[in-house]
Amino acid sequence: MLDRILSTLDKVPGALMILPLFLGAFVNTFIPEVLDIGSFTTALFRDGTAVLIGLFFFSVGSQISFKTAVPSLEKGAVILVAKFGIAVVIGLAVAFLTPNGSLWGLLPLAIIAAMSNSNGSLFVALTQQFGSRSDRGSIAVLSINDGPFLTMVALGAAGLAQFPIWALVAAILPMILGFVFGNLSDKAREFLAPGERLIIPFVAFSIGAGIDFRVLLSSGAVGIFLGLVSVAMSAIACIGGVYLWHKIRRTPKGARNLVSGAAESAVAGNAIATPAALAAIDPSLEAIQAAATAQIAAAVVVTAFISPFLTAYIHKRQLAKGISPENEDAYFEGTPVDEISAKPEQESTNASDSEPRSSQELYAADATPVPNLSSGHH
Which of 82, 97, 145, 169 has a CA 20 to 30 Å removed from the CA of 373? Predict the structure, then answer.
């Protein structure tokens, strides 16, 4: 019975991430005491997010080769600029172009804090399931938007705070160590590979355990609206940025994977603390701190559930057009185009079985042979 359920879930886009996320949020909202019984249960299912993500980063880093390191950094920089740029444009437009400096009660502080902060744990989980190695590696750069720093810059308060360089180093060090181990030893890379897929449902549940459905009620429609705007505008900006990057790089059409842009559309949970952090620096913001915090919290909940479906949709749409993360990996690792396109469907499927993300498994019903990169579609 359980085997049939798991086999069915394998064919549902994002199920490995979405279902544990929903379950964690449900438990935290209606029976949170279950997560507080202590010992290993609390450590794993509620308080283990940081440890699990650190371990996940180590596994992800071990699968990144030297050949894909540069594309990972470039892609991360493109997504970072796109996400921050659209947040600043919308936030400052509301601040200066609306009569009272807000849009239907939506505050510029909440807009910039929410839209410029990405949910890193959700990003790595989604790119593991649907993305390429360069997608997952780009988190090393995207960690820069983790926290209030970019919001401070956007609001003109950067001079009142120092850039938390050691916090950034601490965030990406596990990935760097994994990268070193994986490139020094093929056996180490092979040993660590299953960790990517294995950790995903536990990370997802732990993230969900930090979400309370009641937050949606406290902020009303304004917070939900912020979540919808964040997903839509961040996805448009980031997907557009990655596509333009592929065009400038002259990446073959079949390798123009855009999954990372969609995966970056969610709002980070730690963005909720940004208004308080800024109010501590600039007391003039204390008057709007509570409202901005509630709006951001609602956006976190909304985007945490929409972003996985959006990412799964983009991935499936790409496959239908002959674009896949596997093609992107192969291209950046130097595999000749003709050699990739010559692989028969069965061989491609077998190769997919050895990959933790197993995207061919997820879409077994409509999987297509690995396409010729030089003749893919936009």
Answer: 82
